[in-house]
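Possible race condition, two jobs.
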Amino acid sequence: MTSVRTAPPAGEDETDPRLRRLAIVVVLGAIMTVLDTTIVNVAVTTLGTDFGTSLSTIQWVVTGYTLALAMAIPLSGWSVQRFGARTMWLVSLGLFISGSVLCGLAWSLPALIAFRVLQGLGGGMLMPVGQMMLVREAGPGRIGRAMSIVSVPAMLAPVLGPLLGGVIIDGLSWRWMFFVNVPFCAVALVSALRMVPRDTERSRDARLDVRGMVLLSPGLAALVYGLSEAGNGAGFAGARFLTGVITGGILVTAFVVHAFRRGDGALIDLRQLSTRAFTAATGGLFLYSAAMFGVMILIPLFAGIVRGEPALDAGWLLAPMGAGAMATMAVSGRLADRFGGRWFVVGGVLCVLAGSLALTTLAPGTGRSVIMGTMFVVGLGHGLIAPCLMAMMYQGMPREAVPAATTGANILVRVGSSFGTAATAVVLQIAIRGEIPGASGNLDEASARHTGATPALLANAFSETFWWVAAVLVIALIPIFAVPRKSKGAPDHHPVLTKTRR
């Protein structure tokens, strides 16, 4: 029989070997799945040429993966309860590896899109399942450190994806963008078999909420699709944007009503997530994700459209952001566990805000060192925000609510990042039309307009858009301040959340 632990044993404030081994497994498996959301972006033109089709059609190689990710995330909580976290981690990793191999062998565009969907179904569950495993193993006294580990793949993907994709496209076949996943994920698979303990927390009686799945998974896919269409040039008045968002909004709303009525039998038990800490922290995470993804698409676009730099050179501008984030992530989780995360998150937001305000002054001739230095500052702030906010959402949460909380948070981050990407692109298009009368706002058209005055006018449009990003960051502070403070002298471990290991 398993007994409840009410006090941490000596030395548990440190990251023990078991947690470190689990962390290695999670990072190895998750990093390639997150990289695949960005690595293919730089190959869209090459794929269109090889398959002899239009860019709008080849874009489904990216869109199919993104939609499959969104549809798979809601199933992660139930699948862990039914089959166990280790089992689902291995199954998801196997799906992702199989999809990667098949993508590399794809003989036609429909086959490539289908295999990308298979990849996405596996990749969509890997991050939330890995996060659940780490949270359960860490216990509330070390959640900040666990979330620092989880944040590593999410931080490195937008930075390394375009760089790795550019290197592969320049020197190898596009097929290696998928084959490169195999050795990394194979190591993760072997490591999981050896290092991750067998499942002990699972319920054979856990039934799949079919109605909830039919409402939520397609609803999220429709929302993400509609937002991606807005970001791809359709704008907020486009028919596909409106169809996707309205359909998705109706389905997700219907799921919320269904979930509150069904309670603990729902695909995601929303009643377990009604704590002030979870609501406020995930609200801040949603808004912050929107702003941060806005920054990460604006910098490469600025380099390509205003300065005419190739994709690989533009991608290098983001690299210092990853370096800055890694520097603060190394300590932010530990500090959040000890002192609470609110003020570290506030400090991080102010740091990112300062960087965003500096970016409002960008001009065509701004030195690369200035941009890269600013992105390093943004990265320092990001490394404080992401782990602390994710740790704060679990504050005071019972152990049985961890799957629902993790699934819900991953859904909000996915939708928030899609919203931020779409809104930023639309705001930029509007700003371009304002600066260049008669311009359609189409980014491809804008990149070709390099007359004498056009670069400066385009730079002004980017400055206006960075002001929008800064405004969203300020708004994000409202829910962040609403997160309850960590009580002084409160025990690190909630007796309901952590159980003794035998």
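Job #2 (started ~2 s after job #1):
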Amino acid sequence: MLKYVWFLFISSICFAQSPIDKAEIFISTKKFVNAQNEMQNYLKSNPDDEKAIELLGDSFGYQKKWDNAIEQYEILRDNNPNNANYHYKYGGALGMKAQSISKFKALGIIGDVKRSFLTAAKLDPKHIDTRWALVDLYVSLPGIVGGSFSKALKYADELEKLSKVDGYLAKGYVYEYDDEPELAEKYYRLAIKVGGSVTCYEKLTNFYDNQNQPDKAIGILEASQEIHQRNAIHYQIGKVCADYNIQLDKGEKCLNAYLANHSAKDGVPKEWAYYRLAQIYRHKKEKSKALLWINKAIAGLPKIDIFIKEKALISGL
């Protein structure tokens, strides 16, 4: 009897889900086509439901259907001119479209992207995502079309007032691209000190990687692993060791640990760890072991060009 009552209770919850709830669940589980279909059907009889329009735009965005996403966000922006988030999403979709087309065509869009973000920032002085978007925009654009490190730093300052971690990360990002590595390192380290999240450690690790300082990158990864205990960090350490031909025993140990504890949440398929082990054994001149691991990588993912190239390098030992 209790099992039957429990079944009815669960069933009632499932059937009580609204189309909006279903779409949000689909998006959270990365079933973006399902979310799109759910919202398109729902909007046929509820064409003015703004939450549904937003979710439809989001589902298009996740599928990189930028024109479709822009259309939905434009409706929301026009109907709600004082809503900062709608201006931000419209500008974001436009910006992503600009990245997917020719540079010449993108020039005609950049002005609208900038206006959308600036409007969102003005409407909501506490909108963190908009300020990040402006930092990225001003850093990425050439000076001739409005790029400006000083303006990027202005919005990084605003971010710092809202969130020290975001502000420090933004300043590290700006100074890194402005070729001021000492200042970039300073602010990335401040972000770790204040926030200490996985993202903070990743930013400094990537910075050292870009600066061709692999030993420092490994040191930061090891510090992150001590705190966060994430299996994915084992792979990252192994990757740096393999790419730079340094600390090979440590890289081998970390990659084996990654494989022993691998799960889907780690993100990187096992085949990439096989490839990194093959690299390490190639560096060690251990041809038979290198071939063993690269063959495992190719067997799992046969269409990855870099795996094929690695096998050629190993075969030439």
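Residues 132 and 170 are 7 Å apart (CA to CA).
Logs attached separately.
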